[in-house]
């Protein structure tokens, strides 16, 4: 029977480590089941005990933290546009609180069972390594709730065929060893599905997610399905209902339909500064090497920021281990990867001189072409027809990794960065690739649809980095005899034509990275010259190297005498990053998560950094304020509290809520889902918003009780000119309270109400229950029919009621 297994990228295995904990008693399971479980465990102990580069899992694994993420149902004003659940943005302190370790992966903190778990992380964040570690835990007796663990690597599954059964998926396509009596074991598995864990690694390799959840597999028997149908059947509990599913994937928008339905979403956060130190010391066994490497990494802030990605940390350590100690560390990502890749190839050629005598004799352009072909098809797979000499050398060097499949052996590029660097070399160097093609794959494109997300970003950085690389200095992977001037010129012209002010935050960030890769002051200044005054990285999850690159380039602002405001809302930025950005002279105002901002103030206060504390307080702004997520509102009372409780030194306290006091416009867009619950929080801070002119509360279902609460504080809003209360389910009681309160706000010029609310007012007026209606109608006379929904008839009716309305 065909069987799929995957080898460690190194192809090396180390002796199985003895199980430390007692294995789960397999009770009355048939003998063949016990034997098979024993067999899988010992096999997993073998294959999962070493990481890439042959490093031992037990000795070199750094316990990476997970953060529990939650989804939010968006139902605000734009609900129809994006009726989507999205990840709730966490503040730095919430992220710290939401941290979990491996042992808590399947724990139920609430009553909801965790039968489907998604492990999210960018390329190189350590998903595969984490899963390997998890399998090793299981094989060593942890995770006793599972009798069986099946690991599937989506990279090597054939998604086109529809010839698989559930049994085939588990026994033939997973990395489990061959099962002698698969019929009996399968029968046993069907009898205890809740003791089965199925892991789909590299889930994002299922490229086409359209209709993934349609036509699920429904039968356990030998009916033939595609892999996607089997996944769908498992996920929708049509087959093996009760089993636990774990998928590991890079985050992708197209995956949202599946992610939305998962019981738990966990994010692998990469290495913290402490983890980087720990990993480096583990990597370099020798104490003096360790000290030296750590010193180099820690003093180079760019490299240190890259090292928060475990893969890049490994690459940096590898380079430090092999490059001359007098050499500087690379200054760009392109530089890091070309040095590391060249070194890998060089070492492999030295190791086996008969296979590849030296780098020059290897058909590197062929390897680069294969990388590019793969990139175009979103594929890491290497064409099996390639020269064996080349493949052997690339495998030896670790550039390729080998996997055993039912068809034999498959070679894949070992990681996204290596494949994309080689693809970029192809684009820059190959005569078959014209300038237009290079431009299309370098730098950001204003409108072009981004098909490959993260992978495309990395390719762009490498292409830009390579074309602008200074004269090759021995570490360049480019062939110095190839003239790339025309391609460089084309990319330069494109860069010069960019209009950063038209870019959405994600593209703006890409542009920053591409400009950074050019290592050119000229492009940095050009970028800074063309940046809009209001920079927005809204919604971007900024990692440490993003923050470094933004700060690095913004330093050019002083020579151009430019200043900016920066929107870091929903940017999931750690306090250290916020400190760096806010500390920049050119940043005059910033808007970030309020809880993080308060965290930053506290941090600066504790470290007696008076000057920066003063400027961080002064720079904080909330204008214009649009609350779309709970936390936008939840942390506002804390600002007021700081002021009231004098949490900061006196001279700062009065400034701490100035952002609230100066706020002129507030849009509350939490929608029917969260609006009613969070509205009281807003009401709590409204008295502090003395400058508020525009308050938009449309579509939040605040109801009568909300209206009553609002009525209680409206008189504080002395500057309020415009109030939108449309679509809030306000009934008689609420209207009555509101109308009186509205009359007490003389500044009010316009407000919008729902048609129903209008009718309601008119009927109240007609029934003369409400003596103050004239006052109310007076302010109404200023309405500019802002809300087109007001029925003409109602308006006409009101005009008849009041001469002032008639004069409108
Ligand atoms: N927790 C860890 N401890 C030590 N090293 C790690 C850890 N996580 C990752 N690494 C290192 O980083 C490399 C890349 O990790 P891995 O392949 O697991 O990333 P990934 O998230 O699966 O990436 P991709 O999305 O590209 O598949 C590993 O080969 C290993 O060297």
From TrEMBL:
<dbReference type="GO" id="GO:0045348">
    <property type="term" value="P:positive regulation of MHC class II biosynthetic process"/>
</dbReference>
<dbReference type="InterPro" id="IPR032675">
    <property type="entry name" value="LRR_dom_sf"/>
</dbReference>
<keyword id="KW-0067">ATP-binding</keyword>
<keyword id="KW-0433">Leucine-rich repeat</keyword>
<dbReference type="InterPro" id="IPR007111">
    <property type="entry name" value="NACHT_NTPase"/>
</dbReference>
<dbReference type="InterPro" id="IPR008095">
    <property type="entry name" value="MHC_II_transact"/>
</dbReference>
<keyword id="KW-0547">Nucleotide-binding</keyword>
<feature type="domain" description="NACHT">
    <location>
        <begin position="115"/>
        <end position="251"/>
    </location>
</feature>
<dbReference type="GO" id="GO:0045944">
    <property type="term" value="P:positive regulation of transcription by RNA polymerase II"/>
</dbReference>
<dbReference type="InterPro" id="IPR001611">
    <property type="entry name" value="Leu-rich_rpt"/>
</dbReference>
<keyword id="KW-0677">Repeat</keyword>
<protein>
    <submittedName>
        <fullName>MHC class II transactivator-like</fullName>
    </submittedName>
</protein>
<dbReference type="InterPro" id="IPR027417">
    <property type="entry name" value="P-loop_NTPase"/>
</dbReference>
<dbReference type="Pfam" id="PF05729">
    <property type="entry name" value="NACHT"/>
</dbReference>
<dbReference type="InterPro" id="IPR003593">
    <property type="entry name" value="AAA+_ATPase"/>
</dbReference>
<dbReference type="GO" id="GO:0045345">
    <property type="term" value="P:positive regulation of MHC class I biosynthetic process"/>
</dbReference>
<dbReference type="Pfam" id="PF13516">
    <property type="entry name" value="LRR_6"/>
</dbReference>
<dbReference type="GO" id="GO:0005524">
    <property type="term" value="F:ATP binding"/>
</dbReference>
């Amino acid at each position: 029977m065909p069987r799929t297994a995957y080898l460690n990228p190194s192809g090396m295995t180390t002796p199985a480590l003895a199980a430390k904990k007692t294995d789960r008693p397999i009770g009355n399971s048939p003998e063949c089941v016990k034997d098979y479980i024993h067999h899988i465990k010992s096999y997993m102990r073998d294959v999962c005990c070493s990481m890439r580069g042959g490093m031992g899992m037990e000795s070199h694994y750094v316990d990476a933290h997970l953060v529990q993420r939650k989804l939010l149902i968006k139902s605000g004003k734009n609900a129809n546009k994006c009726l989507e659940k999205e990840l709730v943005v966490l503040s730095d302190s919430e992220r710290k609180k939401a941290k979990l370790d491996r042992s808590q992966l399947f724990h139920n903190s609430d009553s909801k069972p965790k039968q489907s778990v998604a492990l999210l992380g960018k390329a190189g964040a350590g998903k595969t390594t984490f899963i390997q570690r998890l399998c090793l835990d299981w094989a060593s007796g942890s995770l006793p709730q599972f009798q069986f663990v099946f690991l599937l690597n989506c990279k090597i599954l054939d998604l086109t065929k529809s010839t698989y059964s559930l049994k085939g998926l588990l026994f033939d396509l997973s990395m489990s060893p061959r099962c002698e009596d698969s019929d009996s074991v399968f029968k046993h598995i069907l009898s205890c599905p809740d003791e089965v864990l199925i892991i789909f690694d590299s889930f994002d390799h299922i490229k086409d997610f359209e209709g993934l959840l349609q036509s699920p597999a429904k039968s356990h028997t030998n009916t033939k399905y595609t892999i996607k149908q089997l996944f769908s059947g498992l996920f929708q509990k049509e087959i093996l209902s009760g089993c636990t599913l774990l998928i590991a994937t890079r985050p992708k928008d197209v995956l949202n339909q599946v992610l939305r339905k998962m019981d738990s979403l966990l994010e692998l956060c990469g290495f913290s500064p402490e983890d980087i130190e720990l990993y480096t010391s583990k990597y370099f066994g020798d104490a003096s090497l360790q000290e030296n490497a750590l010193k180099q990494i820690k003093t180079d802030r760019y490299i240190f920021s890259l090292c928060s990605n475990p893969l890049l940390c490994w690459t940096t350590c590898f380079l430090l281990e092999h490059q001359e100690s007098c050499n500087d560390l690379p200054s760009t990502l392109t530089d890091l990867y070309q040095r590391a890749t060249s070194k890998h190839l060089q070492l492999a050629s030295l190791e086996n001189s008969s296979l590849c005598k030296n780098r020059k004799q290897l058909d590197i352009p062929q390897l680069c072409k294969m990388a590019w072909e793969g990139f175009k098809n979103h594929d890491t797979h290497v064409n099996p027809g390639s020269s064996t000499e080349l493949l052997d050398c690339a495998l030896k060097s670790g550039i390729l990794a080998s996997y055993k499949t039912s068809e034999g052996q498959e070679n894949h590029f070992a990681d996204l960065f290596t494949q994309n660097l080689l693809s970029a070399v192809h684009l820059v160097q190959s005569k078959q690739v014209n300038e237009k093609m290079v431009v299309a794959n370098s730098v950001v494109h204003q409108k072009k649809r981004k098909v490959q997300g993260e992978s495309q970003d990395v390719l762009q950085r490498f292409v830009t980095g390579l074309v602008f690389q200074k004269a090759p200095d021995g570490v360049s992977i480019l062939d110095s005899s190839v003239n790339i001037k025309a391609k460089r010129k084309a990319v330069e012209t494109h860069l010069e034509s960019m209009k950063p002010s038209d870019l959405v935050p994600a593209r703006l960030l890409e542009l920053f990275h591409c400009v950074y890769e050019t290592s050119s002051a000229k492009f940095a200044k050009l970028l800074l010259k063309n940046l809009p005054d209001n920079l927005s990285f809204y919604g971007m999850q900024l990692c440490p190297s993003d923050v470094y690159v933004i700060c690095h380039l913004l330093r050019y602002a002083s020579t151009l005498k430019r200043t900016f405001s920066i929107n870091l809302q929903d940017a999931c930025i750690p306090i250290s990053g916020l400190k760096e950005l806010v500390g920049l002279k050119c940043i005059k105002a910033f808007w970030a998560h309020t809880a993080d901002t308060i965290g930053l103030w506290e941090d600066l206060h504790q470290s007696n950094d008076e000057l920066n504390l003063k400027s961080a307080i002064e720079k904080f702004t909330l204008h214009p304020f649009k609350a779309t997520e709970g936390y936008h509102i939840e942390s506002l009372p804390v600002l007021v509290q700081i002021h009231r409780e004098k949490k900061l030194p006196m001279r700062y306290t009065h400034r701490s809520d100035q952002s609230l006091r100066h706020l002129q416009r507030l849009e509350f867009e939490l929608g029917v889902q969260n609006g009613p619950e969070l509205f009281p929080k807003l009401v709590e801070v409204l008295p502090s918003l003395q400058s508020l002119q525009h308050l938009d509360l449309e579509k939040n279902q605040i109801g009568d009780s909300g209206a009553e609460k609002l009525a209680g504080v409206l008189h504080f809003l002395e500057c309020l000119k415009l109030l939108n209360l449309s679509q809030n389910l306000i009934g008689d009681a609420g209207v009555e309270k509101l109308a009186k309160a509205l009359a007490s706000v003389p500044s009010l010029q316009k407000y919008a109400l729902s048609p129903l609310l209008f009718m309601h007012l008119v009927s109240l007026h007609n029934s003369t229950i409400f003596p103050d209606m004239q006052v109310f109608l007076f302010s109404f006379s200023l309405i500019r029919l802002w809300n087109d929904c007001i029925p003409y008839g109602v308006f006409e009716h009101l005009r008849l009621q009041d001469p002032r309305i008639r004069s409108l």
